[in-house]
Structure formats: C-alpha cells, structure tokens
Write a structure and sequence with these properties.
This protein is mainly alpha-helical. The protein has one domain (13-133). Helices cover 70% and strands 0% of the residues. It contains six helices and no strands. The chain is globular.
C-alpha cells in the first residue's frame, strides 16, 4: 500500500492533497450524471444549477483534482506546488464569494466540505511553501 501513497517524509500535506484529489474526482464524476448534490451546494439558487452547469463544474473540478494529484506525488516541485496553491485559491474564492457575495451557497452538508477543504488547502499550502520547496 505504501507504494501507492505519496511520500510523507517531509510532512502530511501530500496526504491532504491526495484526499482532496479523491474527493474532487468523485465530485467531478457525479456532476456528469446527477446534479442533486450540486443543487444542495448551491441551495439558495438551486434552480440555476442545470445539467450543463454541472458538467462544466465537473470539468473544472476534474482539472483541479488532476493538479492536486500531481502535486501530492511531486510536492517538492515548485510548479506542481504553486499550481496546487492556485487550485485552492480559486476554489476558496469561488465558494466563499458564492456564499458571501452572490448568495447562492449557504454552509450546509453539501457545501461545508468544499469550503473547509478550500480554506484548509489554501492556508496549509501557503504557510508550508518554504518547508516543501526549500
């Protein structure tokens, strides 16, 4: 099993990156076939969540998951690490602005995971950047 998991020799961030990759991959696939979970995330404007919007969101999430997965296994590579920071920054901006500015998201069981993972990933990657890239 250890040959499948990324190395945690310098810390546990690679495991978090992998966890958010798996969660994002699940979310990306489900957005292609059902949208009830996304309607729950965007519960205050659920009528605006269409199957087309779900597939677009699924593609966006798949790309973020791909980048995070690459970073999990290449956490000491500057480009991979910085791209992972970017995925968390975009996700954090998206979900936080949809909550506080655009009013489509409210913290509930559908959205809290995305909000927590986004903020946790952004803060963790930013604060540990020198550690992993030095």
């Amino acid at each position: 099993m250890s040959s499948v998991l990324p190395s945690a020799a310098s810390g546990y961030l690679p495991y978090f990156l992998l966890l958010s990759t798996v969660a994002g991959t699940y979310n990306a696939f489900q957005n292609y076939f059902v949208i009830w979970q996304s309607k729950e995330v965007y519960s205050l404007k659920a009528d605006e969540m269409t199957f087309l919007a779900g597939r677009i969101f699924g593609t966006w999430t798949a790309l973020a998951s791909l980048i995070r997965g690459m970073a999990a296994y290449n956490v000491n590579e500057r480009v991979a690490y910085d791209l992972a920071i970017g995925t968390y920054a975009l996700a954090t901006w998206h979900f936080t602005s949809e909550w506080l500015i655009f009013g489509s998201v409210r913290p509930n069981r559908g959205s809290i995971g995305a909000i927590v993972i986004g903020w946790t990933g952004l803060i963790w990657t930013l604060t540990q950047r020198d550690h992993y890239l030095s």
